[in-house]
Amino acid sequence: MPIHQQPEMRPRVAYLGPEGTFSEEALLSGVAPDSVEPVPRASIYDTVIALRDGDVEGAIAPIENSLDGSISVTLDLLAEEAATVQIVGETLLTVRHSLIAAQLVGLNEIDTVLTHPQVPGQCERFLRSELPSARVLSARSTAEAVREVVEDSQPGRAALGTRLAADIYGGTVVREGVQDRDDNETRFVWLGRAGGEASTAPLPRPTTDGDERRWKTSLVFWGAGADSPGWLVRCLNEFARREINLTKIESRPRREQLGHYMFFVDLDGGLQAERDVSDAVADVREMCEEARVLGSYPAAS
To answer: CA 12, CA 40: separation in Å to the nearest integer?
Structure first.
C-alpha cells in the first residue's frame, strides 16, 4: 500500500494586501522562495491583529520610512492592542512610487490621485509641481488604490503605487519614480507571537556579509515619573552611561489625555547576548510604570 505523505505546512504570514503592495515586496524579498504562505489583509491593523489572534504564524508590517517617518499605527499596536506580538527581525526595502492610471493620460487630465495615506509625503514635490490641483484621496493600500483606479476606469483618476501592482491589475504607468528621493527606504518589521515556538516563526533571510550580525533592541516605556523634571533624561542616561547607542527615539501620545506620552527607543545590542543592554533595560523599568521590550533581533544589513 503506498504511503501518502502529508503536504508540508508552510507558516502563514500576514501582510498589508492585496497583491502588489510594498509590504508584499518586502515579504517576498525577505524569505526563501515558497518558504511561507503570504496572507493578505485589508489594513496594517488587520495584519497585526491576525497574528495576535493566532490566525497566522507571522506577520510583516511597515514601521518607518526614511522620508515620512514612523508608521504610527504599527507603533501603537505593538505598544497597546498587540502587546503579545514581538519583533523578530527587520527588512529594508527601497521604495519607488509610480503614477498609474487605467490608460495613458496626460498629467493635465488628472484631477484625483488615490494612494495609501503614508505615500503623499514621500511624493510631495511631484504632487505640488506636476499635479497642484489634483485631490489626493486615501486608500487602504497602494495596491488597492491601483486596483480601484483600473477597475473604475474613470477619466481623471490615477493612483500612486508599485509597477508590480500596475502589472497585476492591468494599469498603465504614466510616470515612474515620482518619489522625492531615489534613496527612499521603508523599514519593515517581522513579527511573531511572544513565547511562540521558534520553529514556526518565519524569519528573514540571514545576511551574507559574514558571520557577525548586528543586533537591535526595541523598547517602549512610560510612567508617572514623566511629570517630574529630568525623568526622561534619567531614563536615557541608563543607556548613555553604558555607552549604548540609541538609533531612534520618539514619543507618541498614550491617547488618554494631553501631556501623557509613551517613548519608543531603538538601540544597538541584543538583550540576551549583552549584559549592559539587559542591565540598562532593568534599571529603566525601575523608573517606569511600564517598560516593555518590543523585540531583540538581528538588524537589517
So the answer is: 10
7 upstream amide cis, omega within 30 of 0: no
User: Do 263 and 288 touch, CB atoms closer than 8 A?
Assistant: no
Query: Which has the closest alpha carbon to 266: 236, 231, 287?
Result: 236
Contact 160, 184 (CB under 8 A): no
Do the beta carbons of residue 78 and residue 219 sit within 8 Å? no
Nearest 5°: CA angle at 140, between 137 and 142?
80
Q: Could you tell me the three cell numbers for 266?
A: 531603538
pLDDT in tens for each of the 301 residues of the chain?
455 544 568 899 999 999 999 999 999 988 887 889 999 999 999 999 999 999 999 999 999 999 889 999 999 999 999 999 999 999 999 999 999 999 999 999 999 999 999 999 999 999 999 999 999 999 999 999 999 999 998 889 999 999 999 999 999 999 999 999 999 999 999 999 987 544 345 566 544 444 467 899 999 999 876 677 889 999 999 999 999 999 999 999 887 777 788 999 999 999 887 789 999 999 999 999 999 999 999 998 7
Q: Where are the alpha helices (DSSP H) in the chain?
A: 22-30, 44-52, 72-79, 124-130, 142-152, 163-169, 231-240, 275-286
Confirm whether pTM is higher than 0.85.
Answer: yes
DSSP state of 268: E
CA distance 178 to 159: 12
Name the 3-class secondary structure at 120: helix
- Look at residue 100 and give its three-state secondary structure: strand
**Nearest C-alpha neighbor of 214 from the set 206, 202, 222:** 206
C-alpha distances in angstroms, 140 versus 14, 41, 56, 81?
15, 10, 20, 20
Grid coordinates given for 272: 540576551
